[in-house]
Amino acid sequence: ITEFCLTGTLAIAVFTAALGSLQYGYSLGVINAPQKVIEKHYGHSLGVWSERTTVLSENSTEDEELPEAGQHPAVVMYWSLSVAIFSIGGMLSSFLVGFVGDLKGRVKGMLMINFLAVVAGLLMGLCKMWKPHIMVISGRAVMGFYCGLTSGLVPMYIGEIAPKAYRGALGTLHQLAIVTGILISQVIGLDFILGNDGMWPLLLGLSGAPAVLQTILLPLCPESPRYLYIVLGKEQEARNSLYRLRGPYDATADVEEMRREKEEADKEARISILSLIRSSVYRQQLIVALMMHFSQQFSGINAIFYYSTSIFARAGVGQPVYATIGMGAINTVFTMVSNDYSWMSYVSMSAIFLFVSFFEIGPGPIPWFIVAELFSQGPRPAAIALAGCCNWTSNFIIGMTFPYIQGLLDVYVFILFAGLLLCFTVFTYLRVPETKGKTFEEIAAVFQKGKKKLAEAPKDHAELEQLKTSTDA
Question: Which chain regions cross the lipid bilayer (predicted)?
């Protein structure tokens, strides 16, 4: 038999892995809707927001202006840190994806790190037992560390178990699960569900729930055949895994493909992160890869995911939480396929919906794909680690600074992001090559074409050979 079908085992394996991406998306979006409720609890804990002020605020008319907890500098700082610490955790763990994936395998790697997600969920879910701002920030940091690992392990595992004919379709499930998680967090974050004074710790604590389900299902999932063959050299176990995933079929072609890939990997030694940064051979590719990730984050997309409720409120939208849910719904659909005038609030909503839609068509998924296409097997792990760190670092900068930038620019805040996007668009047009249908050698030739002096070629060749024989970790 030479053909195979989508088996139940493959479906379970992909679904189970995607639970990690769902949890990542949930953690991205969950902090948004209950912002004002959590800020009041931060204010209470910090001693800058009294019960009397809360009662007065609830009983006041629309014409009365009372200070909100979120306007206090200490609350602003701790709230910004609650949002941004998530990215610090991801930034630190992004360097460990390859190590964790190769340590015990993709499946056991995902199983091991679920402990972090459960701990993070408990810290946030039980935050009222101590100081809420400290507990939430701690939980968000641990969850970010988990998500930095899972955002690398999930697409790695799905990409390695997916049949070639379905690789593209199954590969999009990682991004689809992320935006589905964002949407779920926004819906159950409504004040009449869990985004209220009594239930918000449960809302945050549920961030760890997908990890519990994933832990139950992971033992049913076969290990990646590519890991078994290319990393461990176990051909028969790799065949058995293929049969479990794809049913009875002739696996000769797939095993031969893995054999060639292993031979290529054995020929080209891994290049360290430091060597890659110093190398002039890969400098142009590295600049392009990092700029693509900068463009993803400095587009302002995560400012919307983190702060859309307050953005819509400033734009004059009457029910900003529902507008946020609408944004999440638009986000999910597109993954699968001057306040002086009242009508400006609808213009604001439409603009943000369109922005999210176009983001999911291009800047969202492409930076992750293009890094692997720009680099061969040797420098690829180091390039992916650098790109991941760059992405999470930029995410942190946006999460931490946006409230202050918004306070400075008010309703004109996205003009700044528009200017940055214009610069990134020009850079992409001038410097990013088309990679579709091209081999690594053809892509590398595009970058080398820009060098004017032919005398540099021998120097680059010598440096490349030195890098290939390097034993740096």
Answer: 76-99, 111-131, 137-158, 170-194, 343-361, 382-405, 411-430
User: Using an 8 Å Cβ cutoff, are 356 and 325 in contact?
Assistant: no
Q: Is the residue at 458 inside a domain?
A: no
Where does residue 168 rank: exposed (0-12), middle (13-18), buried (19+ CB within 10 A)?
A: exposed
Residue pair 331/356 in contact (Cβ under 8 Å)? The answer is yes
CATH number of the domain enclosing 33 = 1.20.1250.20
Tokens read off for 219: 């033992």
- In 3D space, the residue among 134, 173, 180 whose CA is nearest the CA of residue 157 turns out to be 173
Task: Average the pLDDT over 203-217 and give the result.
Answer: 95
Q: Has residue 73 got a pLDDT over 90?
A: no
**DSSP code string of 376-413:** -TTTHHHHHHHHHHHHHHHHHHHHHHHHHHHHHHGGGH
Written as six digits, the tokens of 181 are 């998680």
How many structural domains are present in the chain?
Answer: 1
Domain holding 211, by residue range, is: 7-49+67-221
- Whether residue 251 contacts residue 243, with contact meaning beta carbons closer than 8 Å, is answered with yes
Residue 434, pLDDT above cutoff 80: no
Confidence check: pLDDT of 410 > 70: yes
- 273-314 pLDDT, tens per residue? 888 888 888 888 899 889 888 888 887 777 766 655 555 555
Q: CA-CA distance, 67 to 224, in Å (whole number)?
A: 56
Do residues 97 and 382 make contact, with C-beta atoms less than 8 angstroms apart?
no
Residue 146 within any structural domain of the chain: yes
Domain assignment of residue 251, yes or no: no
User: Which strand (E) or helix (H) includes residue 116?
Assistant: helix 106-125
Q: Report the b/e string of 361-373 with b at 16+ CB within 10 A.
A: eebbbbbbebbbb
As given in the structure block, the two tokens for residue 336 are 């699968």
Q: What three-state secondary structure class fits 246?
A: helix
pLDDT digits (tens, 9 = 90+) for 353-402: 666 666 665 666 677 667 767 776 567 778 878 888 888 888 888 877 87
Token pair for residue 167?
């690789």
Within 219-343, where are the H helices?
Answer: 225-226, 235-246, 252-267, 273-278, 283-297, 301-314, 320-336
Measuring CA to CA, which residue among 377, 346, 304 is closest to residue 28?
304
109-166 residue pLDDT tens: 999 999 999 999 999 999 999 899 999 999 999 999 999 998 888 888 888 888 877 7
- The stretch 12-37 carries a mean pLDDT of 90
Tell whether 309 is covered by a domain. no
